[in-house]
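Researcher: If convenient, please comment on what follows.
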Amino acid sequence: MFILPALGYDYDALGDSISKEVMELHHTKHHQTYVDKLNAAISGYPELADKTVVELLRGIKELPEAIQGAVRNHGGGHYNHSLFWKVMAPGAGGQPEGVLGEAITAKYCSYQAFVDEFTAKALGLFGSGWVWLQPDLSIITSANQDSALLDGGEEPLLGLDVWEHAYYLDYKNKRDDYVAAWWNVVDWRFVAERYAS
């Protein structure tokens, strides 16, 4: 059985960037629903009991056809959110340093140019979805709860949730304000550890 992961910080820990109300609703309602529905989808398939969500998503075409859609949506929702909580932290923000910072600057010419491109992808994504920083430092998007892992994809370094449930109570229809505030809580130390590994 998959379980809802703990955040590692309090619901109000992200301060002005993301409110306690949004964090609590997002974690305990939205993410919990993905976990519950993923468990329900695979409950009739004991051969899948030992698989991780990463394995399920990477091998989605090998799963029974009857549950591929549910695993794509709810397994994706579980994986995506589990990473999302980890790439944020109280007192974080700033710029990446060390090897990751140098690599981002080398690829995008400056940290600000990287932020600008990532933000443009987030604002340009129609409807609901995610923006991902990949291990090669490319920036990609996915619709709905599609994961970057689908069909053998690599685990992203970080992801930004641009579903309205992630920001609407705080920012209404101002996705741009949400994205700008989100940079203030990105945990670059965590992202750098993923990049190094």
Residues 20-42 form the longest helix (23 residues). Residues 22 and 169 are 7 Å apart (CA to CA).
